[in-house]
Amino acid sequence: MISILIFLISFILGNFLGIISAYKLNKSYDIIFSILISFLGAIPILILAILALTNAEIFGYPSQFIETNRSLGFISLLVPILISSFPTIAIFFSKARKKTSEILQSNYYLFAKTYGLNKKQLLNKIILKNLFISELNLFFLVYILLFTITILIETIFSIPGQSLFISFAFKKGEIDIIMFYFSFNFVLLTLILFFNNFLIKKLNPELQKNSYLILKNKKFKFKEVQHG
């Protein structure tokens, strides 16, 4: 659950800030946010978590997860989620900034602009679509990153999740549970890769056409070898 929340916050906020930075490329906004996000993304999660724990009493937020109270439980989750989001926000921000700036300078975008599309249509039909396609390959990397981050954060802030599950399995020597856990994650990663490739080809007709031509060419060569 915490991994999904971190991913959603990172995906939305990182892309939002990255697109704005691309529109304001090399201006004060772009420079400030690029430095700030890169700096926060480069700080190790462990150091941020220790700083959050030591300053919890000063700022008045819970240092550990509270399950008995809903409002306090939400606040106790908010700080760990924000801390965990910094590296993935930096990834999406960097990708969105670079890709959007490339699109804004492309002939395809200029043609669409002269064709009469307004700013909202250009954003939805040109920028967001192409940006989403380019970021599909990042989902696998982000999943691996979040997998390690959430285990660390759940352990430090006593959040019930996969860290408790893994620690229980190792303490009790439950080999079957450990094997099931890692096998499940392996299958999930395989499905994510398959789904990513399917979406990339579905959303990018040019790539789908190229794949078809390559496959057709291979079949033609195979027939030539058989007849030869």
UniProtKB/TrEMBL annotation:
One GO process term, biological-process aspect: transmembrane transport
Cellular localization per UniProt: Cell membrane
Keywords: Cell membrane, Membrane, Transmembrane, Transmembrane helix, Transport
Annotated TM spans: 6-25, 32-53, 73-93, 138-159, 179-200
Membrane-protein topology: Multi-pass membrane protein
One GO term describing the cellular component: plasma membrane
Residue stretches making up the ABC transmembrane type-1 domain: 1-199
Parts forming coiled coils: none
Pfam name, any one: BPD_transp_1
PROSITE patterns given in the database record: ABC_TM1
Family annotation (InterPro entries): MetI-like, MetI-like_sf
Similarity remark: Belongs to the binding-protein-dependent transport system permease family.
Protein's name according to its UniProt entry: Oligopeptide ABC transporter permease
Gene: oppB_2
